[in-house]
Amino acid sequence: MLEQLAAIGAEAGAVLKARGEKIAVVDGATGGLISAGLLAMPGASAYFSGAGIVYTLKGRRILLGHEPGSLRQYRSATEPYALRQAELIRARFETDWGLAETGAAGPGKHPLGVASGTSAIGLVGPGGLTASILVETGSEDRLGNMQAFAGAALTLLRDTLQGL
Fold first, then answer.
1. What angle do CA 89, 39, 114 make, to 5 degrees?
2. Is the peptide bond before 107 cis (omega within 30 degrees of 0)?
3. How far is CA 71 from CA 37, 51, 54, 160, in A?
4. Could you tell me how far CA 38 lies from the centroid of its own chain?
5. Is the pTM of the predicted complex or chain greater than 0.90?
6. CB–CB of 26/54 below 8 Å?
């Protein structure tokens, strides 16, 4: 599992390193797998500034540093919410890129009603560049969903970087 994520992360990391750019990450339902994929490459400190796993509202507020209630207009596991978290982590760590994932790995329903196997991923970069995707696996397999969400996030990052 980590080998596949590390391979994608290494490709993204190589582009970030070559450009002298940095990234910060918000892992949600991925439990740190996005960050692990980016950190598996030796020399990751050249492009990886930091990350956190957001699993509660209090944790989100502490990590992202936003005012209480300021994210109420967003619904969990949506692209606008993932993009907002990506903006906040980018600002918090003062990086070129912010990458965020929010979702429900399952099994069963998320406390806020998000269906298991649903994840939204947001990427924010220099010059107002944004990219986002919604992943719906339709699966209750927690570990499989975590891997699918992390793989989608790393692929979005890699493909966006390579497309510039």
1. 50
2. yes
3. 28, 19, 14, 26
4. 11
5. yes
6. yes
